[in-house]
Amino acid sequence: MDSEWKEELAGRITTADGLAEVVELTDDERAAAEGRVFAVTPYYLSVVRNSAALRKTVIPRSAEKYRAIGELADPLGEENHRVAPNLIHTYPDKVLFLVTAFCPVYCRYCTRSRMVGKNEFKTTSTFEESFQYIESHPEIRDVLISGGDPLAMTDDALDKLLSRIRAVPHVRMVRIGSKVPAVLPQRITDGLCSILRKHRVWLSLHFIHPDELTPETKTACRKLADSGIGMFSQTVLLKGVNDDTQTLVELFYGLLEINVKPYYLLQCDPVSGSAHFRTPVEKGIELIQSLHGKISGPAIPQYVIDAPGGGGKVPILSSAQIRREGDEVVFQNYEGREYRYPDPM
Ligand SMILES: *Cc1c(COP(=O)(O)O)cnc(C)c1O
Ligand code: SF4
Questions:
Q1: Each residue's pLDDT tens digit, 206-235
Q2: CA 169 to centroid of ligand 2, rounded, Å
Q3: Structural domains in the chain plus CATH codes
């Protein structure tokens, strides 16, 4: 039902008092929540409430105030690759189309916290330049629609956007990045499924912990699968949330069971105020090696570091690919260029 998800969104909790009605806040959480912008849907808060791990990812903590060396507001250098108001072109054949700054839930480790929730671009009229860029660049084969969360848009807006992109003959792959099945499963309506199906969209979903795989979320993903929508998942590696083998194995098998292929395990980007979420790169390598050969191949994502500054995602399989220089980890991207990830010992 279309009204159900709109009510969920209208009921988002954005104040410390609102949070305190549902969860018992620590002094640190209350103080941090009072000074910061945050948002969570009533549905996701009911999940978070019973999950010590997920709680850390949506309820602010005072550790966010700390700015570590090497942290940036725009860690992936996206602004340097902006080719139109809503378009980032970093890789040769694919573009990132940022269609909204709105997300139902603000993840505390969000790479795009510089813009998410800040209403930087509201009008669809600014999409025109981005459409024209895609239309006039035949090398673009893959359009990744992201934001913010595109599935928080209305059916009509999505249908129009997708129709325009699908009309470009050289575009062969269209994906939407979304956390909606985890945070707003009510959004997965028949109407939405038929739009995604009509435009043959792949969903790149964001899941971080098996506690997110509730009956509601499983139903939403199965509905998408039954509508013929291809789905994969990206998981950000987060300290104290999912940085152990057992949690990851549980999550990855749980995703396969709902037709979602684990795609990336992402080293957390050095976004401002994220030090308390970041694990050492060595830990990521140890974790991914604990999976290879031991669990179902399709359950294993690629462990990647998104090269700070915009070098693209680099799959890391072994410690032979990295070199430590003091508080930085140095590695090469797909072009053989060196990039540095701040990783204090
Ligand atoms: C992650 C990303 C993509 C998509 O990369 P894939 O490895 O193909 O999933 C595209 N553009 C930008 C800027 C990205 O950060
Ligand atoms: S869903 Fe993605 S874009 Fe939205 S707040 Fe979370 S990490 Fe950021």
A1: 999 999 999 999 999 999 999 999 999 999
A2: 30
A3: 2-342 (3.20.20.70)
